Amino acid sequence: MAAVHREVERAYPAAPDADLPALVDLVPDGGTPLTESVTTDVLTATYVDTADLRLTAAGLTLRDRSGGRDAGWHLKVPAAGRGARTEVRHPPGGPGHVVPEPLQALVRAVTTGEPLHPVAEVVTRRRAVRLVDATGRVLLELADDHVTARRLRPAEGGGSAASAPVTWREVEIELVDGDEDLLDVVEDGLRAAGLGPARSGTKVGRVLPAPDAPARATPDRRSSAGEVLAAYLAAQVHRLVEQDLAVRLDAPDAVHQMRVAARRLRTALRTFRPLLDREVTDPLRDELRLLGRVLGTARDAQVLRDRVADLDEAPVADLDARHRTAQEAVLRALGSTRYLTLVRGLTALAADPPLRDRPRTRRRATRVLPALVARRDRKVRRAL
Question: Least CB-packed of 34, 128, 194, 326 within 10 Å?
């Protein structure tokens, strides 16, 4: 069974011989005695990804880790807030770093079903200091990490070949049951002790290459119709895939936002149909319409439940059941082969939009796209 929680942590580079101040000395006790609890561990994490590092490109990390309090599989997802991520934990699996099916399902829209295999190994020798208040509550953990990391590549005949190792030292601070102001206080103390500014990124990011960025330039008023349309379609596909994971994690408003992305894609494929290869885009549009219906039913059930929840004698139990049924239908749809085929088609669309090779796609967008929008608007008005 996977468990989901929000983590907030910050990491700072440290010289190999740097002396760290005692954690308890960095935090005013406010009249409440604070103590330290110290543990040491060796953590060995094997990170998995597709051959072209799709998880990395999406800002996700997926690892199988041994050692420490939380051995097992960890999927980390970017979240709002400095140093914040959503972490999904799954118990340890068997040998071979085979990703558990629930975690594979969570990232399937990103991987489009491509196999996941080891891409890096990170070994951390950690001395962890936990700040504990008088009630026994752990407020914050400071981890002094000596790290050795290497990239793994598929080897001929199977298995993996490792690159030369990279080593460094860093200090992490992570909230447990404290508040974020406590992180600021500890950060100030560490910086005063000579540690460098907080770094962004992850440990594994030190050894994995940066994903190839799309060659597509940001459109401006001089861009062609094809360039603007391609950028818009890619942005909406990215948004839909991003919300797929949020929906599976039952994040607030995720169903609504995924529905919006699906609707915008469908509308763009219809409005700019004259510029696109219809044999490619019409089937995608039809599938997006079906997906939108499933998402719409779930969204309507959610809105109805929320609007009447505070009313006297509201049928809350019935509305909750209706919402659960609709949400389960969404998850079934996202788990279907049909949906995976749609995502693969949309991913291909974003990477290489099927623009018709005609003069209009090469003309300035300002001279082409507004006319197509106006034509669609006239059709809608006539239908009303």
Answer: 194
